Amino acid sequence: MAKLRDSSSAHSGDQMVGKHGLVLVFLGAAVVVGCVESEADTVVNDASLAEQGSGENWLAYGRTYDEQRFSPLTQVDASNVSGLQVDWFLELPADRGLVSTPLVVDGVLYFIGSMNIVRAVDATTGTVLWEYDPLVREHAGRMRAGWDHNRGIGFWNGKVYVATWDGRLNAVDAATGEEIWSVTTVDPGEALYITGAPKIFKGKVLIGNGGTENGPTRGYVTAYDAETGEQAWRFYIVPGNPADGFESEAMEMAAETWTGEWWRHGGGGNAWHGFTYDAELDQLYIGTGNGSPWNRKIRSPGGGDNLFLCSVVALDPDTGDYLWHYQTTPGESWDYNSNMDMVLADLTIEGRQRKAMLHAPKNGFFYVIDRTNGELISAEPFTTTTWATHIDLATGRPAEVPGARYETAAALVSPTPLGGHSWQSMSFNPQTGLAYYPAMHVQTRYSDDGVDLESFQSVSYQGGFGVTITAEGASREGSMSSLQAWDPVRQELAWEIPLEGIFNPGTLTTAGNLVFQGRIDGTLRAYRADTGQELWVSDLGLGISAPPITYSVDGRQYVALLVGWGGAMSGLGGVVSAQYGWAYGAQTRMLVAFSLAGAETLPPFMEPMIPQAVEADFEVDAQLAAAGERLYGLCRSCHGPELVSAGMAPDLRASHLIVSAEAFASVVREGSRAVGGMPAYADFSDDRLLALRHYIRRQAELALAGVEPRAGPFVR
Ligand code: CA
User: Fold this and answer.
1) CATH code for the domain of 680
2) Domain count for the chain
3) Separation in Å, CA 444 to CA 345, 391, 576, 630
4) I want to staple 406 with a disulfide (CB 3.0 to 4.6 A). Which of 50, 411, 653, 662 is the partner?
């Protein structure tokens, strides 16, 4: 089977991962390995994306404009899916977390992996045709921690569109992998990053950004000409300083809902994931982010809804002008952003045909919205929502539970900042009328004891929060997550499958009455779409974070997905996620395609391995360790809470390198492992590095003494 690279310099790392702990490296820019044969120029236009009747291609992130992730293909169906076999696979030994949705255009599969490297492969064999490396590690600059994540790419008129962690948007020749144009979409000096897929409509490419937690930010989306990269328009999500004048009437309106000097202390709303183009109504929908900081009392001390945080905002696709909005969480204070998928569907509700939008954001309510005007049709909780009892259909507003804003005392709240549902893709099957997505059922304790504007500003690394979250007081019973099949007309669960862990990935549904979903436990499964009966399971030997797709070439239907436990938040899973043993640099990451005619066998899997703390000649100073613990906040998203790594980065308790000041400085300050995913923290002083080493060793010694680490802030 196709293998990307056989030889390269080994990244020796800390070899706690054992025998196969090599991570191959990529050097240099785009490597053109071959050329795509195409008879005619592939023109992906509005009509082909809106309809895509045959289902042969998978042309856009959500397959079609409506983002349903529903395939009309029926060769694989509920009666024969049990015969699905591996057709081909591509090992990706240099990759780590793989979360993206591949695209398929006329027999070529395109996907983005670690370090935002894009590859084109033959969709029937996995043979690599070209590889494009946007060199994100060289461009990332101050954008540290998490540059390994990307959820997808765009395709239009012979070009692949690649948005990078450091904020660039690049157009690449789909035939050769050569860069055609590249623009920087964020202003220099802004701590904003991109993990989302660019969306293409009417000859334009749309991209937003993340970074709400990186201090005062002002989210925006920008549209570019797909041919030239020239900026077409930009829409700001929250208002700036009134003294500078507002960009639009929409910003003037939004400013009425903010209080205090919000432009100095906060903002946010960054649109890092959900964008849907409605080809039928010619509207563009933006799912917007949470507040910066999370705690409203810092960013808008006199209260207010804080538009357009946590909203669905409809824009004119030609001009970026505001059309309407629906805010899911007014005045949010919990990181309940509304960046999740917005799936378009025509539904018959109480005898009326409705142009609906389905949206299951972090706050735990499943919304059905009239997308002609933003009017709320219905909303019901799909998980425990202790912050609000219900959504008032007359006003469209949540009925908040007093105290849930931790305004008087710390409050145990569900959902958590992870959300009842996050970016993991939701699919909708028009034949069953059901939406399929992974839900999370966890709670966390929010507290802002002692936090006021002054104290908030004095703690710089706390930039985007203004609140602390802990597991204190939470019960630990029941499943932390589930696969849900939701009936949006009845607004109730049709069926539900309990899942292990958190951050299980998104779904695909087909006209073969099927739903496919991978799991953190390393399996890909197929269910009957109407009943949830499990029909097929395949062990892929490594936790899955990416959603599957399906496509057809020469009459053969394939189901394909990336296998590589990861994602920007997965590192925060701590012991909940680490128990599966998907260690950094261990099990081989892969792209796998299945078919009914498949006859391939996957290579033997590496057993799950949980890194063990190592003994070291190092005397821990308690005060230095405590100082290091405060600094470690930056490192948690990859190395894990309490140093329990879920595989995004090495478990440092198992590292011998930590003992050497020089070796530690070379990795952390000088960036000697940048190709392995570890950014350089050039501004870290010797004192900081020393404190970090003491903290790391303290945690290692606790582990050696058999002290169980805390579960992290997210518990059932
Ligand atoms: Ca957030």
Assistant:
1) 1.10.760.10
2) 1
3) 34, 22, 14, 20
4) 411
